[in-house]
Amino acid sequence: MNLLDEDFSNNKNKKTNNMIKIITIFIVLIVIAIIGIASYMMYLKGSVLRVYINNMENAQVKNLFVFEQDGTIYVPVRAMASYLGYSSYNGEYSNKSEDSSKCYVECEGEATNITLNSNKIYKLNLEEGKNNYTYIYMDKPVKAINGELYITTDGMQKVFNTTFSYDQGNNRIMINTTEYLVTAYANTVLDYGYTSLSDVYENEKSIIKNMLVVTDGKYYGVVNATDGTQILECKYDSIRYQEATGDFIVSSDNKYGIIGTDRKTKVNIAYDSIELMDYDAGLYLVKRNNRYGVVDLKGNNVIYAENDQIGVDISRFEENDLKTGYILVGNLIPVKRNNKWGLFDTKGNQVVEFEYDSFGYIASSNREATNLLVIPSYDVLVACIDNRYTLLNASGEQPIRAFVDDIYMVISGGEKHYKMTANDKTYDVEEYLDRLGVLESTSNNNRTNTSSNTTNINENDNQVNNETNEENTDNNEQQNNEEVQNNNGEQQENAQ
Fold first, then answer.
1. Residue 404, exposed/middle/buried by CB under 10 A (0-12, 13-18, 19+)?
2. What pLDDT shows up at residue 368?
């Protein structure tokens, strides 16, 4: 090979090597670009919020969440209800209206009420068919955003009985409903050695706290949902989960008691029935030998089980918007014994003797009258003796110091007014209480303050305040009105 051919061959090899290097560099650059693009796409994908309901991604729900600067997440109640299988409405379940400051959601087993600016959730068990609500609290009050009611994710879990988890690293939210979880664990309980889950709605809600109420076909127990370890042994005739307290009402041999998740007995299994009266007061209604009493969360007697009835039937007073008939005007427990009613406070002190025939006014001949049990703005209760009526405050005292013919409610133009009649004359109860110095309460939990000074009552007030004489009461202490003396003398001897 001559020198010319050798140079040509070397140049050709150099060009080939250079081309290979260029191609290699180009391929490397392409690979780097692909990796970079893929990484960027993964970053973008990770930075976009993804929401899963019952393990299925829902692109619409993610637009409902409102993230506050302090980390609180809010969701719109009614919009979220439609995605979680609930019906939702303005107003309250037991008091239908178009009031947009209130809202209730409903499923097959439960109705739940919430109110703007309140963190209190009222729940009514629809399976039991009772009128008394239970309640629990959210971490923060309901707020309004663009005219819609919003609750925190803590509130969402409690209102809709769901679980909620937020993986901030992956920007992923997981929401599971009770119904979905019950289905998911249906086969798991078989692996744990039980026949099935309890189908009682209240028990199904225990799954939100990672507990399962299970049965072996004869008895009931409670297990940890994750690993099946026993919380309560499977040996009880029935078990009912208490959402408010987290405890369980259990029964054995037709007797009921309360056991906590720590297995400690809070109320001995010794009663014919037991029911939560009030969460804040920590009181349970108990029944033994067909007599009723009240115990606290430690099983201590607050009112001994020796009464005919505790609490009134609030189904007769629907327009009063009451949530329970067990505790009225924030403090009073109505108790019936030997066909007479008295009042205890939530500490177990008797504040009114057993002397009243009934509590509440039932409208009859007066067409405009509506049944009335309490006047919530003044925290007073309607009481009756011998078909005559008076008011009692949270201390069991009579602010009007009189018995009248009627005390009732009138609804006009959607507004509630309170009236009373005496000697064929009608009076506005609220105006009358104002003149007596009874202070209007700022909330339903406030106690009513009353003034014992009645010397400034004008002539018309004297007609109402002309009390009929009680046994063992001095007539000279009553401010008698001449008209009442002439026209209503016989009635003055009837009231007790």
1. buried
2. 86
Assigned CATH topology for domain 53-180 = Copper Amine Oxidase; Chain A, domain 1 (3.30.457)
Judge whether residue 466 has pLDDT over 50: no
Q: How far apart are CA 482 and CA 332, in angstroms?
A: 36
- Return all residues near 351 (Cβ < 8 A) that are at least 6 apart: 332, 343, 344, 345, 395, 396
Q: Please provide the CATH number assigned to the domain covering 242-307.
A: 2.40.10
Q: Under a CB-based contact definition with an 8 Å cutoff, are residues 429 and 420 in contact?
A: yes
Q: pTM higher than 0.85, yes or no?
A: no
Name the residue with higher pLDDT: 477 or 134: 134
- Which alpha helices (DSSP H) does 2-150 contain, by range? 3-47, 77-84
| Neighbour tally for 331: CB within 10 Å | 21
**pLDDT tens string 296-314:** 998 999 999 999 999 999 9
* CA dihedral over 67, 53, 76, 133, signed as positive or negative: negative
**Amino acid sitting at position 328:** L
Which residues fall within 8 angstroms of residue 299, CB to CB, at 6 or more apart? Answer: 258, 265, 266, 267, 268
